[in-house]
Amino acid sequence: MTMRRPIILLLLAPAMLLVGLLFVAPLVGVMSLTVHDGTSFTAEPIRELLGSRVALVVLERTFMLAASVTAICLLLGYPAAYFMSTLRPRVRAYLTYLILLPFWVSILIRTYTWIVILGREGIVNTGLGALGLAPVKILYTNVAVHIGMVQILLPIVIITCLASMLDIDKDLMKAARSLGASPAQSFWKVFFPLSVSGAATGGLICFILSLGFFVTPALLGGRRSIIIANLIDLQVHQTLNWGFAAVLATALLAITLACLGVFWLLMRRRVEFSGAGLGR
Amino acid sequence: MTIPSLFELRDGETDLTMATKGSSIEFRSVRKTYGSFVALEDFSMTVAPGEFMTLLGPSGSGKTTALNCLAGFIDIGDGDILIDGVSIARVPTEKRGIGMVFQNYSLFPHRSVMGNVAFPLEMRGMARDEVRRRSLAALEMVRLDGLADRMPHELSGGQKQRVAFARAVVFEPSVLLMDEPLGALDLKLRETLQLEIKQYQRQIGCTVIYVTHDQGEALTLSDRLAVMDKGVIQQLGTPQELYDQPASRFVASFIGSNNILKVFRSEGSTVSIEGLGAIEMTGREPPSRGYVALRPEHIRRTPKGRASATLEQAVFFGNAIRYVLRGTDEKEVSFTEPRSGAVDVPAPGTEVRFDFDDSSLTYLPA
Questions:
Q1: What residues in A contact B110, CB-CB < 8 Å?
Q2: What pLDDT digit, counting tens, does each position of A56-113 carry?
Q3: Which chain A residue has its CA at the smallest distance from B74's CA?
Q4: Does domain B258-364 have CATH number 2.60.120.10?
Q5: How far apart are CA A199 and CA B39, in angstroms?
Q6: Which residue range forms the structural domain that includes residue A101?
Q7: What are the chain B neighbours of A196 within 8 Å (beta carbons)?
Q8: CB neighbours of B278 closer than 8 A, spacing ≥ 6?
Q9: What is the C-alpha separation between B66 and B44, in angstroms, rounded?
Q10: ipTM score assigned to the predicted complex
């Protein structure tokens, strides 16, 4: 039996109120700052964004960082998920637990831990010194930012990939073999195409989360690792240029939504048949 | 007379491909265990080229294990399997050249109907034109050439089954394995597809090993069938042999419906049988012990019958009536009576006299 409309609205009201008050209203407020300085309309923040070399460099850097972190996470996460999908359910559940374990530790603490490991007097460099090797500078470089971000995002990619792999009927690989496919062919012609939408979803989540990363680049990166979230923070806390901060935030939001849109267009066909596979 | 290739159906060119011939298959005392569970025990069987052999048994009887050993999905434990006299123990699945139809069809969901049927030909590195031509011919055979561009999820169960069949035979394997291919379909469709499968197999000429737990299906389709239980072949023979001369109580009860009655004792030509009482046998030597099997269609109602029992219920079957009786010893005996002409069906609780030919009794060991 379907519920009557007023009851549905009543049930939705608390959540809608919360989202409206605490999310939509502030968002509209921030976005209005891009064209309104509190007393009158202005095009100054948008002009500042387009004229700012720093902003454009940082935007590009943010994009490149998100892309490379996502690529590394997929390269490491997909094979790990594939391996897990071949295990017995009990062993797999145990490994899943281990993979999710880092989520119980705050991102801040995990990031500080990397300072201890990678720093000048850190575990890596003391180890190298003990072996008579010269210390390497990892901390406060892009390498450290990558290490820190991959460590945080990898579990999400693994779990997303794994979920889609477990939906694949294992008999399909048997069928492929019986039809003349080698193990490698049955992987590339059957398993991979069927798991690619799950991997893409994991990649998208990873990419979008990377675009908004703040703590890890701030703590592990150097000045050349500043990304857009750090730049926004700088505008809000140091230069008090809220209009510029708002226009940067809006640009980030627009880019993220554009990514989602492109992904949706690319995946529409694939989702159709993987959805049908679930209902079998 | 040569067996026509399925591709001749399309364009009548006789030299397009060589006609497919079935291979012989030999299982040599295959034994397969999982921990302490014995899935197959001393499994030996020879299947002639072009023969339709069915492995029939309840779930867990080892029939699917035998099929998976042959397909190469699991290692042959002890023993060996030969195709055309050559051991395949060390040949990987894809090199065995065996077509297989799975219970849940296992169509590739990301490939169209055509893409599915073309898959085995692509794996063999065939030229694109040839792949297309042969795939269409196979689809035409199963009358699905109009649906070549559909995706699997757009097909009905029966259509999926036909695509799976076309995909399994398009590369003209000499052996075709079918694992409960009709298990997920409704009764009417199963009966239609049974006839189709049989017809295609005759066209193609390949050897078929068919796994099912449906005895009716097994009787309809098979040249010979092996009844399996607990990893062992209980009896192997033609459908008629297994129906008429079951060798054990298991086979007698598994194939068709049957009254299986214990033999108590015999003195001279009189034997006491569970459910029937003391029967004076004239036609043949009475059984001394063990069991007898008596098919429901071999019992007839007659006022001068040698046995009698109380009618419990008469069930209407359309073309026949099934009588369920209970003997004085509480044993249930049932029989069927064709409904030709007017039949007076007695009321439940009535004493019914009935009889049978002594030759219709099958003697079974204890």
A1: 190, 193-194, 270, 273-274
A2: 899 999 999 999 999 999 999 999 999 999 999 999 999 999 999 988 999 899 999 9
A3: A174
A4: no
A5: 38
A6: 54-227
A7: none
A8: B270, B271, B272
A9: 10
A10: 0.80
